[in-house]
Amino acid sequence: MKKQFSFFHLFLLYVATVCMSTVAQAQILTSSPYSRYGLGELNLPTFAAPSAMGGSFIAYHLDSTTTPVFINQANPAGLSGLRFATLELGGQAQFTKISNIGTSLNKRNANFSYASLGFPLGKAGGAAFGIMPYSSVGYKINSTEDVPNIGTLNYQFDGEGGLNKAFVAIGQKPFRKQLIRFLRSSLRDTLVKYEKTARYKRIRLGKELLSELSLGASGAYLFGTINQTTRVIYPGSITYFNSKRERSVQVNDFIFSVGLQTHFTIDSARYHGRDTLKQGKRVLMKEKVKIGFGFFAGIPSGVMARQNNIIYTYALNDVGGETPKDTILNSQNVRGSIQLPLEMGFGLSLKKGERLNVLVDAATTNWSAYKSFGESSSSFQNSYRVSAGLNYMPNALAFNSYLKRVQYRLGVGYTNGYLDLKNTPVANLYVTAGLGLPVGLGRASDRAVVNITAQFGKLGTTSNNLLQEQYARIILGFTFNNRWFIRPKYD
Question: Which of 37, 102, 208, 268 to pair with 91, CA 20 to 30 A apart?
Answer without folding.
Answer: 37
